Amino acid sequence: MSSRITVIGGGAMGTACAIVLAENPEQRVSLWARNADHASDMVKTRENKRLLPGITIPDSVEVTADIAAAVADSDLLVMAVPTAFLRNCLSEISTDLTDDRPVVSVIKGIENETFQRPSEIIGEVLGSRAVVSLSGPSHAEEITRRLPASVVAASGDLALARRVQQTFTTDRFRVYTNVDIIGVELAAALKNVIAIAAGICDGLGYGDNAKSALMTRGLVEMTRFGTSLGALPETFAGLAGMGDLITTCASP
């Protein structure tokens, strides 16, 4: 059965999601970019030259700067904008989303003013609807080069998480499922704090032993913090926690 999927956000991760989704010929994929010139350039060159140079965007991906057209008739919405801009972006499309179509968030972060997670912002602006958080060690530049990667799709609606799993999975991009959306979203944000500390550790020349200790004890703190907010401890030992922490701390 064919489906239409709209990716909101013309950055590196949004582009990567569109490329992965387009591998399934049964899926019609649209990619929305806010900047009209950026969208036009991607249409002409079939590349996101600024963020993913040398990576081809398949011709089957419809790139547009018209947000109303992008979300029209889509079966699934993938949000791939920075956390700081999520609320305003959702407000722009809220009048076009009068139904209860599900939303996938690949956003990693916490809103500064409210301390809300992406799924909470989505629910507040768009109303009650099923949300899946797709997260884990997933650098966009590696995904688009078809290097192997694994992530987790988390939602209180396990059936929807499994649908997203099937929608995104390719021979190089494996998706697992999880019911702990709180833990997955918190892990995605908290690992950045530890990664900053790991970078400082590198800068000070403290070596591998100290960095490994920092990452390990940092993961313990992430787990304690997350469980105090309702997350499951095992989530932090998985792809969204340990996996993403390793990738972020090890990146140059």
Features:
2 domains, single chain, N-(1-d-carboxylethyl)-l-norvaline Dehydrogenase, domain 2, 8-stranded mixed β-sheet, Rossmann fold, alpha/beta
- CATH architecture group name of the largest domain: 3-Layer(aba) Sandwich
Number of strands: 8
Strand sequence of the main sheet, in spatial order?
3-2-1-4-5-6-7-8
Largest sheet: 8 strands, mixed
Question: Would you spell out the secondary-structure blueprint of this structure?
Answer:
Layout: E1 3-8, H1 12-21, E2 27-32, H2 36-45, E3 61-64, H3 67-71, E4 76-79, H4 83-93, E5 103-105, H5 118-126, E6 131-135, H6 140-143, E7 149-154, H7 158-168, E8 173-178, H8 181-203, H9 207-228, H10 239-250
Parallel strand pairs: 1-2, 1-4, 2-3, 4-5, 5-6, 7-8
Antiparallel strand pairs: 6-7
Helix pairs in contact: 4-5, 8-9, 8-10, 9-10
Question: Can you offer a commentary on this structure?
Answer:
- By secondary structure, this protein is α/β, with parallel strands linked by helices.
- The chain folds into two domains: 3-179, Rossmann fold; 182-250, Orthogonal Bundle (N-(1-d-carboxylethyl)-l-norvaline Dehydrogenase, domain 2), CATH 1.10.1040.10.
- It contains ten helices and eight strands.
- The chain has helices at residues 12-21, 36-45, 67-71, 83-93, 118-126, 140-143, 158-168, 181-203, 207-228, 239-250; strands at residues 3-8, 27-32, 61-64, 76-79, 103-105, 131-135, 149-154, 173-178.
- The chain has an eight-stranded mixed sheet with strand order 3-2-1-4-5-6-7-8, with helices on both faces.
- Strand 2, helix 2 and strand 3 (61-64) form a beta-alpha-beta unit.
- Helix 4 (83-93) runs parallel beside helix 5 (118-126) and helix 9 (207-228) packs antiparallel against helix 10.
- The mean pLDDT is 96.
